[in-house]
Amino acid sequence: MGGPWGAVESMAPTVLFVIAYFVAGNNLGIAVAAALGAAAILALIKVRRGERPIRVLAGLLGVAVAALWAAYSDDPLGFFQVRVLANLLSAAAFAISIFVRRPLIGIIVGPLLGTGMQWRQDPDLLKGYSRATWLWVVLSLARAAIQIPLIQNNQLAWLGATPFLFYGLVALTVAGSWWVMKRTLPTDHPGIRHPRASAPGR
User: How many helices (H) and strands (E) does the chain have?
Assistant: First the structure.
């Protein structure tokens, strides 16, 4: 989740984009500049924090593509059209990873826990990470489903408030993922930090 910093990072560019647009009298150029400026500042902070270059570039690129598409289309809703597309692609990526037996939640969490990809040799952990990854498919689709009608009805102000809702949904998804993992692993399993090559009796 990233704590308070994660909240700022996920919300700031989008919220500032919408606020700047209305405060500046529906000036799209200023809104785009505000979003890009926020993304650039956040990127510099992440560099100083020693975060991985791929994470820095991903955050900056995501905002840049959305802001520049809004400018190109001359429509502030374009900022959120890109976000909808990103969520649909994210849902597809999570789903595909499950079907190819490389669930993305395991790929993300494994290295963070110091287990790398060893969990793939553990049938129970593979099943648990696969089930948890389905929650992230649902999250991505839910984000898109919330934003699409708001875009269609030109509800820019409400779109600007969605990052607060989405951050809450992410928190619920993280908690749900942990619960799914705990429910999936058998009682004799040593836990997600301790993958085993195969379950007993298999």
Answer: 7, 0
